[in-house]
Specification:
- By secondary structure, this protein is of the alpha/beta class.
- Helix content is about 30%, strand content about 25%.
- The protein contains twelve helices and 24 strands.
- It has helices at about 45-50, 60-70, 90-95, 105-115, 130-140, 150-165, 200-210, 230-255, 280-295, 310-315, 345-350, 450-455, and strands spanning about 5, 30, 35-40, 40, 55-60, 75-80, 100-105, 120-125, 145, 165-175, 195, 215-220, 260, 305, 315-330, 335-340, 355-360, 375, 380-385, 390-400, 405, 410, 430-435, 440-445.
- The strands form four sheets. Strands 5, 15, 16, 17, 19, 20, 22, 23 and 24 form a nine-stranded mixed sheet that branches.
- Helix 5 crosses helix 6 (about 150-165) and helix 7 (about 200-210) crosses helix 8.
- The longest helix is centred in the middle third of the chain and has 22 residues, at about 230-255.
- The chain starts with a strand and ends in an 8-residue tail after the last helix.
- The protein binds pyridoxal-5'-phosphate.
- Pyridoxal-5'-phosphate binds near residues 84, 102 and 125.
């Protein structure tokens, strides 16, 4: 894969001074500080054909990330965490590229099934799986159910018994690791709604329950320390801590677990200042820590599962917006409004995560008199069109080219947790997702219309 063609005129950067190229899909063509093409297609034509806002997913980047993961973890398994972007077409690609799929709800499970993912290659998560979801998973023959609580153990035992099946189970362990990420996406610390705490002995107790169970078979352990994690040490510590747990189980029960799932969470460039580790560095660090810890305990190295979501699909996505109202406030700031906002990107409002922005498409000719122009390099606050002051997408961003009303503006690195977390706030339909590659665009999810919303709402008026 060749790196993206980037020509940021005059070396202008996007904001905090980070490396924009790390946030661009591999097929991106940037000229004069403007994103001009993706997947061999002109972005202005994409915007006209599919309307804005529009999520564009670059096929070469997405498939490239999947392959890179498979190669880096060739001795283990890569599980795509579908919650990052759970669309049928994306799961079809994951399946075709040899990834397993992680689901956390009945809806994700049904989508994986529709995408043709073999049930044995599905991993089921969730801190509150319903009896119906567990029933559907057992009926389908889902390969691994990651049990999260004692309540669930009781529910699952009953469901497995009713089906007359023995179900393979991984134990979700909360390893007590602080991954230095936002508290809403940190999951490894003791005070968590997820999993069985290791330090208090709950994980050991849960393992004993599964081992004694008639219908559950303990085949592995799982932990997930958090999301958007940049320090490899969080993962290598998890590997060592989890191996210690496996050693204690071997000692106490004579049971040697063959599978260890260390979750997802590898960070990617979302904020312009982000500097994530490479996939190869991640794989080498985790693999090395695991092998060393296993050897230290005299255990065979368990089969390693990793479960990335964001770092598979995030870098493949770009959101195209059209810039509307531009409001320079003397001595304060310049607001640039786009035609979407927190309904398609709630991440700044939720976590303060600002994605890099680039002007996109061809520059307009001289704007009409009185139409404001934002010169390249001016700090801007990019906001959406929702009726809320918190509807902010970026603050203090500097654009790499001039921007005029009605031109396109692209948010980079928006493949993960954007469509998945989108809402209909202010009655905006969720935008379309298109997959681009080799000069072709295919719709992964069509844009939602107000008619779609109204169709779910019977009138109270009698006819
Ligand atoms: C969210 C999640 C993942 C994926 O996290 P990313 O940060 O998207 O890689 C993996 N495993 C579990 C259990 C999760 O909850």
């Amino acid at each position: 894969m060749s790196p993206p063609r980037v020509d940021l005129l005059g070396g202008a950067s996007s904001g905090a001074g980070g490396d924009l190229a790390g946030a661009l899909p591999v097929t991106a063509v940037v000229e004069g500080g403007r994103l001009r093409a993706l997947g061999g297609l002109d972005v202005e034509e994409l915007a006209e054909r599919f309307a804005t806002p529009l999520w564009v997913l670059d096929r070469a980047t997405l498939v490239g990330r999947m392959r890179a993961y498979r190669e880096a973890f060739a001795d283990g398994e890569v599980v795509y965490a579908s919650k990052a972007l759970c669309l049928r077409g994306v799961l079809e690609l994951a399946e075709a590229e040899g990834l397993l799929v992680d689901c956390a709800t009945g809806g994700e499970l049904t989508t994986a099934e529709a995408a043709g993912v073999a049930p044995a290659r599905i991993v089921l998560h969730g801190n509150n799986k319903s009896a119906a979801e567990l029933d559907a998973a057992v009926a389908l023959g889902v390969g691994r159910i990651v049990v999260d609580s004692f309540s669930e153990l009781r529910r699952l035992e009953a469901v497995a018994a009713a089906h007359g099946r023995t179900v393979d189970v991984h134990l979700r362990v909360t390893p007590g690791i602080d991954a230095h990420t936002h508290e809403f996406v940190a999951t490894g610390q003791d005070d968590s709604k997820f999993g069985f705490t290791l330090s208090s002995g709950l994980a050991h107790e849960a393992a004993a329950v599964v081992i004694a169970s008639e219908h559950l078979r303990l085949t592995g352990a799982h932990c997930h320390v958090g999301s958007q994690v940049f320090e490899l040490e969080a993962f290598t510590t998890a590997a060592r801590v989890m191996l210690g747990f496996l050693a204690e189980l071997a000692e106490a029960h004579g049971v040697v677990l063959g599978e260890l799932n260390l979750g997802g969470g590898l960070g990617v460039v979302e904020d312009p200042a982000d500097d994530p580790p490479s996939l190869e560095g991640y794989a080498a660090a985790v693999g090395g820590a695991l092998a060393a810890a296993a050897a230290g305990y005299g255990l065979p190295t368990p089969r390693l599962f990793v479960e990335p979501g964001r770092s598979v699909v995030g870098p493949a996505g770009v959101t195209l917006y059209r810039a509307g109202t531009i409001k320079p406030l003397d001595g304060l700031r310049t607001y640039v409004s786009v035609d979407g906002g927190m309904s398609d990107n709630p991440r700044y409002a939720l976590y303060g995560a600002a994605h890099p922005f680039l002007p996109a498409g061809a520059p307009s000719r001289e704007p009409a008199a009185g139409i404001p122009r934002v010169p390249a390099g001016t700090p801007v606050t990019i906001v959406g069109k929702h009726c809320e002051s918190g509807d902010v997408l970026a603050e203090g961003a500097t654009l790499a080219a001039d921007l005029v009303e009605d031109e396109l503006l692209a948010a980079l690195g928006t493949g993960a947790y954007h469509h998945a977390m989108a809402s209909n706030y202010n009655r905006l339909g969720r935008p379309a997702v298109v997959l681009v590659g080799d000069g072709e665009a295919v719709v992964l999810s069509r844009a939602e219309t107000v008619a779609d919303l109204l169709a779910r709402e019977p009138s109270l008026r009698r006819h």
